[in-house]
Every structure is written in C-alpha cells, then in structure tokens.
C-alpha cells in the first residue's frame, strides 16, 4: 500500500472506506489530497514551537515563492498541477489553519461558516478536480459537503477543541468560555449540548444540498462520495442518539453501520433532477474561493 493510502487508512477511516469504491487511480489521487490536508492539519494542531512559522512558509510556497516547505508540499503542488486544483483553495485552507494558532472564540454563525469553508469547503473544491468533475456547477455543492463535514467535526470535538482554547460554538448561541467547556462544568453541559444540536441542524442543511449536487459527479465518484457523506453524517446521528453527551468524548461509526450506510447509498444513485444551488447557504461566504457572488 502506498504511503498516502496508509495515512488515509490510519487517520481517515470514514474516507478510506469510501475511497474503496473509487477504483485505484482516483483513490490514489484522493489519498494524495488527503495526505496534504492531514499534513497541514497535524502541523496546525501539533506541539511544535514553530508551527505558525511553518504554516506561513507553506502558504508562501503555495503563492509561488521560493520557500522550502518540505516534500509533502512539493508533492501536493505536483498533484495540483496535474489536476488543475485551484491553489487559492489551498491557500484559504492554510489561512484557516493559521487562524487556529491563537485562542478561538467565534461570535456569530457567519464567522463559523466562513471558518468551515476555509478548512473544509476548500477541500471539497479541490476534491472535485481530483475526481475529474467537469461540471462547474458542482463546486457550490462540493463546498457545502465540506462545510457539513466540518460542522460535524465541530459538534463531535467540542471537548477536545476546548482543551486547545478553541470554542467554535458562536457566542450568539452560547457565550461560555472554552475553559469552562474543557472542564466539563456541569452547569454548562446542557447549554453546550443545545448549541451542538444547532450545529448539527445547520450541518443537515448543507448535507441536503450536497446530496443534490453529488449527481453532477462522474458515476463512480458519485457513489464513493455519497458513501463518505452518509458515513460522516452518521457521526452526528450517533451523537444525538446518545443524547448529545459531549462530555463523554468522541463517537465513532462502527463497521456494521458503515456497511448498512453503503447499501443505503445505492438508493442515492437513482436518476433525479438536479436543482439549482440554494445561494442562501453561501450568503455569508462572499469573496471566498469557489463562491459565486
């Protein structure tokens, strides 16, 4: 197994499962993109004293500057060149990672959505190119899938993020500091759970849009991405099934449910009309990569 696929199998189990249905060529490309995203994410969340400077060097390299940023970045640049990946999406991904290098305390839903676009909607844009999608309309829906998945991440990881001084739950929903959340303060358990429910409800809007746009993908890619969507969405379903007990730690989708969700995804391959993208979902994203103004 190639290194990129090993990294995907080890760190992105839901995505690895979905990639099994892509075929070897597309699966390898998707794994290479995941390797780049995982590399910068691990760097952003790591304990290196110079991680901010390293992220800035990577961003500068993505801008075309002659900066030594490591073989992982050079491999990504080659992948981007071969697959016409817009580097503005990669740069905005780095901007999102850089924003995590200081304490995070979002104030509004708009701030939350713009962050989700930066660290995940951009990945959807890049994945569209990797999967040979030629229909430009797919970009908007790919952004929505990335946002939905990141909202799921945020709902799942509230406790872990708080321990890193990050509170992505908007203050307009719940103005509780990360320090209280990280301590699993009993008084804040119910209010935080209520805010997590709002995150998951918001994610559902973006998952619904993504399911419409998936039909714009080539057939083989369509099934794989549908599987990824349904398996990742299940994290939120399981979190609600255990009554949003966020203080109990992460939830994981068991293999048996992945199989059932894969079979369920076959129904999504039925022909259906492709509706226009709901631009209301991008109202707060104007000026960002791939967003139609």
* Number of helices, counting only DSSP H or I runs of 4 residues or more: 13
Looking at the overall shape, the CATH architecture of the domain at 87-282 is Orthogonal Bundle
Total beta-strand segments: 2
Q: What structural class is derived from the secondary structure elements?
A: mainly alpha
Main β-sheet, spatial strand arrangement? 1-2
The CATH class of the domain at 87-282 is identified as Mainly Alpha
Q: What is the 3D shape?
A: globular
Q: Biggest sheet, in brief?
A: 2 strands, parallel
Report the sheet-strand fraction: under 5%
Mean of all residue-level pLDDT scores:
92
Annotated CATH topology of the domain at 87-282: Farnesyl Diphosphate Synthase
Radius of gyration over alpha carbons?
18 Å
End-to-end CA span: 42 Å
Which percent bin holds the helix content? 55-70%
Contiguous runs where pLDDT drops below 50 for at least 5 residues: none
User: What is the helix/strand order?
Assistant: HHHHHHEHHHEHHHH
Oligomer: single chain
The CATH superfamily label of the domain at 87-282 reads Farnesyl Diphosphate Synthase
């Amino acid at each position: 197994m190639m290194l990129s696929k090993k990294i995907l199998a080890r760190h992105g189990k839901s995505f690895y499962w979905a990639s099994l249905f892509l075929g070897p060529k597309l699966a390898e490309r998707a794994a290479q993109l995941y390797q780049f995203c995982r590399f910068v994410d691990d760097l952003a969340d790591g304990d290196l004293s110079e991680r901010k400077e390293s992220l800035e060097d990577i961003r500068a390299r993505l801008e075309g500057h002659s900066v030594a940023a490591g073989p992982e970045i050079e491999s990504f640049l080659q992948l981007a060149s071969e697959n016409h990946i817009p580097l503005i999406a990669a740069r905005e991904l780095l901007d999102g990672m850089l924003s995590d290098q200081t304490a995070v305390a979002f104030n509004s839903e708009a701030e939350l959505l713009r962050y989700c676009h930066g660290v995940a909607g951009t990945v959807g844009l890049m994945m569209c190119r990797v999967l040979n999608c030629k229909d430009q309309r797919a970009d908007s829906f790919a952004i929505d899938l990335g946002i939905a998945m990141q909202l799921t991440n945020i709902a799942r990881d509230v406790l872990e993020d708080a321990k890193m001084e990050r509170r992505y739950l908007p203050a307009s929903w719940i103005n509780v500091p990360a320090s209280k959340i990280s301590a699993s303060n009993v008084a804040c358990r119910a209010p935080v759970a209520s805010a997590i429910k709002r995150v998951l409800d918001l994610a559902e809007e973006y998952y619904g849009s993504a399911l419409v746009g998936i039909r714009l993908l080539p057939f083989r890619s369509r099934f794989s991405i549908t599987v990824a969507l349904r398996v990742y969405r299940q994290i939120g379903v399981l979190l609600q099934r255990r009554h949003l007990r966020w203080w109990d730690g992460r939830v994981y989708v068991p293999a048996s449910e992945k199989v059932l969700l894969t079979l369920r995804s076959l129904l999504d391959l039925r022909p259906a009309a492709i509706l226009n993208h709901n631009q209301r979902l991008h109202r707060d994203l104007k000026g960002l990569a791939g967003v139609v103004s």
